[in-house]
Amino acid sequence: MNMQNTATNKTVQDLIARSNRLGADKRNTNFAGGNTSAKGAEKDPVTGEDVQLLWVKGSGGDLGTLQPQNLAVLRLDRLQALKNVYPGVEREDEMVAAFDYCLHGKGGAAPSIDTAMHGLVDAAHVDHLHPDSGIAIATAADGEALTAKIFGDKVVWVPWRRPGFQLGLDIAAIKDANPQAIGTILGGHGITAWGETSEEAEANSLWIIEQAEQYIAQNGKAEPFGPKLPGYAPLADAERRAKAAALAPVIRGLASADKPQVGHFSDDAAVLEFLEAAEHSRLGALGTSCPDHFLRTKVKPLVLDLPADASIEDSVARLKELHAAYREDYQAYYDRHADQDSPALRGADPAIVLVPGVGMFSYGKDKQTARVAGEFYLNAINVMRGAEAISTYAPIDEAEKFRIEYWALEEAKLARMPKPKSHATRIALVTGAASGIGKAIATRLAAEGACVVIADLNLGNAQAVAAELGGPDVAVGVQADVTNEAQVAAAIDEAVLAFGGVDLVVNNAGLSISKPLLETTEKDWDLQHNVMAKGSFLVAKAAAKVMIEQGLGGDIIYISSKNSVFAGPNNIAYSATKADQAHQVRLLAAELGEYGIRVNGINPDGVVRGSGIFAGGWGAKRAAVYGVDEEKLGEYYAQRTLLKREVLPEHVANAAAVLTSNELSHTTGLHIPVDAGVAAAFLR
């Protein structure tokens, strides 16, 4: 059997369609949360006979985007026979390795911890989901009584048990003992439903979710989070985003004390409503409950205990105090529960930071992880709202949270993750990045794992490049005229709100007008100096402020030119401003070194193909100066070099990637020629 054959199986097709429908609605489950399964027959390629199989969402998959290759495929008879060798709940983790001996054929995903739940329950189709309404019942102090009241005998309460083989046995026994039941509420966790057809399982899942929603809506109190606190109302839109941008670099630096993190900002109305209410501090301290939630959000957030109108200075000072206390508290949590077999502490910084009147800052190893962490905490807010509306929110206890957060199986999953790329967690802003050298640099940095802000005069082009690079989890496009200080500040703010901060800036925006001295106008001179000399200064200044506030070091790269040191004819304005840029590199390297910020330059020459400058008329003018056809200009430049090689935008991008990597971590104030060897431009 191969995965291609599996994809044509009607049972698998129905499972994928059902999973995608359920996963598309965040009311049903969150990103990568929950799992679905189906049991059915497939031809065994060895015997030619039908064999009963279990198809179940594999480890790490997402229901909304599930495809056949994301399913684990197991022999049902072998999986169910594991009951005969089950060593008991104290050793249930050993059963995950045993799943490998039940696999059918090659390919597919690794079985997840929830495989037993799907394989042992006597139903052809099983859904395990994390709907906000279902978890609200599951985390209510009187969740068992509420389950009976809301669902009658159609849904059975299952006391909290960590996911695993024993939970699968428990649910299987409950179904056998309750033939009228269509599913369960899993205490502290979520829901499980089943059916004899895919349609029936989906209908049962949705019925449980909708009944819980309706009960909460009809019976919940008006202010589940308590009355509004004076002074904690959301700030006006512009003021809110301005304060978020001002605080974001500091908060990212705090969240990156152990290891660098990428950030995400949300001012969702539900977050702001929660932070405005009197009970937000108590509820925040209780932390999340569903394992999928706190594995991504940590056991609880850091909550700024100041009103919305607190000054930036007061907010920063208090955030630093709270961060120190959070780290001490998290270390104490680890020390209370860790034993000699526990994995090492993974970091004591918060993953979620809440600022009243402003919103939520969430963090992770990349943008998607940071964004999803925020989405999960929004789920947690919805859960707390529902539980408090009809009861009291009572998440699983701290010891159980620790058992899952520092689970050996979770540690093994983390160990299987691929090694981070060279620029992972780094946030880059490249000016003039919608074409030519800038686009090549942005493309290379994104390929190396960086989040990239495409800054360009033309917003549409910038957004198109960002979409080409992978969209908002990888790149965003912003409009910026680098000669305008307000627009530069706005572009930096957009970068900070999109990804949490700025680590790497490439001053690439440029243009050139090739004229002899007597034909060069004051306007020509001012335009080139404004874009390249003044523009680089403005961008470097705004970016350095963010880098200093983050306390994570950084890189500033200037795309200067061979012309910054080589005196050529008919080029006074361009070459003079490039010399200005080249000396800015040295000046800023000397000034910013104490903050761990490296400043380096790249001196390209003869980049004709793919260059925005050359396409804008510069190429024709330089070709005329040298007496060659414009289409031959690249070849002309190559032949005058020592290596006889044409320079392309990608070669400049290579230099930018190396200069900003850890390979040159001790290098600053350097200019790298990317000119195929022009002896007259050698740096002396």
- Order of strands in the sheet with the most strands? 3-2-1-4-7-6-5
Total DSSP E strands: 18
Low-confidence runs: none
Which geometry do the CA atoms define? elongated
Mean pLDDT: 94
Cα distance spanning the termini:
66 Å
Name the helicity range.
40-55%
Strand content: 5-15%
| Largest sheet composition | 7 strands, mixed
Gyration radius from CA atoms, angstroms: 29 Å
Question: Short summary of the structure?
Answer:
With 684 residues, this protein is α/β, with parallel strands linked by helices. Strands 3-2-1-4-7-6-5 form a seven-stranded mixed sheet, sandwiched between helices. A seven-stranded parallel sheet has the order 14-13-12-15-16-17-18, with helices on both faces.
Structure report:
β1 (35-43) and β2 form a beta hairpin. The protein is elongated, with a radius of gyration of 29 Å. The strands form 3 sheets. It has a 7-stranded mixed beta sheet with strand order 3-2-1-4-7-6-5, with helices on both faces. Strands 14-13-12-15-16-17-18 form a 7-stranded parallel beta sheet, with helices on both faces. Strands 8-11-10-9 form a 4-stranded mixed beta sheet. α18 (436-447) crosses α25. By secondary structure, the chain is of the alpha/beta class. It is built from 25 helices and 18 strands.
